[in-house]
Amino acid sequence: AQVLAGTGIAALGTALVITAQVRDAGLGLGDVLSSSLGRGVIERVVTVTAALLLALAAARLHGRARRAALVGAGAAAALAMLADVLNSHAAAGSWPSVNELLQWLHISAVGYWIGGLAALLLALRVAPGEDRARAARRFSTGAGIALVVVLATGTVRAVVEIGSWGSVLSTSFGRLVLVKVGLITLLAGLGAVQRVRNLPRLPRGFSGLRRVGAAELGVAAAAVLAAALLVNVAPPASAAATAPSGPPPLQPLTLTVSDFATTVKVQLSVSPATAGFNTFTAQVLDYNTGTPAAGVSGVQLDFSLPQRPDVGGSTLQLASAAGNRWTARGGNLSLDGVWSVTALVERGAASQDVAFTVPTRSLQRVDVSAVSGQPTLYTVHLDGGLQVQWYLDPQTAGADLVHATFFDPAGNGYPAAHGTLTSLPSGGTLVTLPTKELEPGHYVGSATLAAGRYRFDVTAQSTDGKPLSAHIDITVG
Fold first, then answer.
1. What is the side-by-side strand order in the sheet with 365-369?
2. Which of 141, 114, 116 is nearest to 222 (CA)?
3. Measured distance CA(251)–CA(258) in Å, rounded
4. Phi, psi of 95 (to 5 degrees)
5. What is the pLDDT of residues 44-71, one digit of tens each?
6. What distances in angstroms separate CA 303 from CA 2, 95, 315, one per listed residue?
7. Alpha carbon of 268 to those of 81, 256, 416: distances in Å?
8. pLDDT per residue over 168-183, tens digit each?
């Protein structure tokens, strides 16, 4: 009965975890298996279902068959724990296999210790006196071994994830680890009371064993809660290991595009291609020969920002320069974003329009966090401490979901309004993605992507009405 109840609770918890992950990812049920969550969902469902079926079989069997079914249910439960480990912090960083093994031993030992204690306390209500005493003594020995495993593996994992003494008190992860260590230490003390004081009194009296055991379960529940909170906090060592990318190179951005009639090609250079003042240099070439085009009397650039229709257009007239070039400096790229720039090549009655897509390059800092089996997270740091966290799911060629979530300086969700997402493949055309808001400040866009390099932009509005924008370059496939 205890095994059946435990596997039933595990199955319910697994269903709730999967539902929360699918909801947070903005996935439809038909998209789950093809997303990055697919493998983890399959692993969790298969192992927990196997444990539940074997527990149901054990309830109907007797003798050796029942023991075999219980052993099988325990093995399936251990594999279900492994499935969680393979999709946790332990899968990231260096030596992932060693970290995964230690984490699996850690939670398996906790499961034996705490789960076994709960089952023992229930069994003490129905089993004969001497049988209860033998069961309690056997469990005490096993729990002592489990405690050693928990402390050893937990210590190693804490050192790996925290990385330095300074991060123990200065980070949420470190403080939660301290809380967990304190609770486990209290559990160890209660276990010592059981072994030294209450076990020698068996089978004469069980009241002390029950009272201290109930206290152990209460403290264990708090320790499990602390461990659950750790899952949702980035380990300091992982954050330190993700070196932020420096500012983009300031070499000129050079684009070459032809007119619709393929009579001329315009090579446009923008330096440094950041929001603000830039130097624009154009060279007009004959489409067929690649030599400077004849009869060009002037080049004019017209600017607009499709993502921000409230931003007015502007014009910049380029002046003739040496080497059959046309150049000027202007602040027409006033905001970070993907601009539409049309070059009017003035050739009398044969004037041509040549359309460019010019993405600005921002001096933003980007942190990258990669965990095996999960989407790679890209965190863009904006002015004022705001952040935008990006990820693609599944970041492979085909149907993808593009996520962009705004966070405030404290790491809480920031309710940026009116978000719009766009994608721009390398050398391709800007596409505005169908965008929906999952939660305040969390936007997801649907895209069908080919393999290659993409720039994704998000524009939104701050709580005081100011424009917000961020972009990220991600390789798909």
1. 365-369, 377-381, 387-393, 398-407, 442-449, 435-439
2. 114
3. 23
4. 50, 55
5. 889 999 988 998 898 888 888 988 988 9
6. 71, 51, 6
7. 57, 6, 35
8. 777 777 788 888 888 8
